[in-house]
Amino acid sequence: MRRILMMAGVVAVLSGLAGTGHAAMEQVADACPGSKSVCIWHRPVVTAPPGWQRSEGASTHYQANAFAPNGTVFTQAPAVMYAKAVAAPPDARTLADFMSDDLGDFRRQYPDLRVQQGLSTRDGDGHGLATVRLSPAPGGKAQWETIAYGQEGGDYLVFALSARDQAAHDAALPAFARMVAGYHAGTAGKAH
């Protein structure tokens, strides 16, 4: 019992320290996926758009705010969305570097992936977030994705819509735009 109370105290202190300066981020302390350890992370504060529900299991697993259409299970939904904060890796000095690395990961997994760049999605402060649309080549196995990227303080923000096919993707785009529009940058920095 004493160990549990001590662990709870450590989590409370660390959560308080980790929470300074990011009003638009929420701190989470939960069991690490696949472990009995406690992980502390933060994620952008967004809410489920109308017709969508927050998936607690997927949110914890992906360390994000994850959403699926009402009445569906995240892993079986035709389309899902999430908002995630990623601590800036040392080799990604700029948002453009981070985006390039992320798209490189997608291309390694799906070499015939089609990428549409130069899009923009507005956050709740009216800032245009750099946005890309990914689609499979004919006969390809990649998901249909729209990903908006931003930055707040030392974190890169990833807002993503992922769908099994184009129809599900296109039907979910208005909800995705509403989710991103619900994000307001915190006091530590503005989303770019």
How would you describe the overall organization of this protein?
Helix content is 29%, strand content 34%. The strands form 2 sheets. The chain has a 7-stranded antiparallel sheet, sandwiched between helices. A two-stranded antiparallel sheet has the order 1-2. It is globular. A hairpin with an 8-residue loop joins strand 7 and strand 8. By secondary structure, the chain is of the alpha+beta class. The protein has one domain (45-181): Mog1/PsbP, alpha/beta/alpha sandwich (Protein Transport Mog1p, Chain A). It has 4 helices and 9 strands, in the order H-E-E-E-H-E-E-H-E-E-E-E-H.
**Helix- and strand-based class?**
alpha+beta
CATH-scheme architecture:
3-Layer(aba) Sandwich
What value does the Rg take, in angstroms? 17 Å
The number of distinct β-strands equals 9
The fourth-level CATH homologous superfamily is Mog1/PsbP, alpha/beta/alpha sandwich
Total discrete domains: 1
Q: Tell me the CATH topology.
A: Protein Transport Mog1p, Chain A
**Helix content bin:** 25-40%
Mean pLDDT equals: 84
Distance between the termini: 46 Å
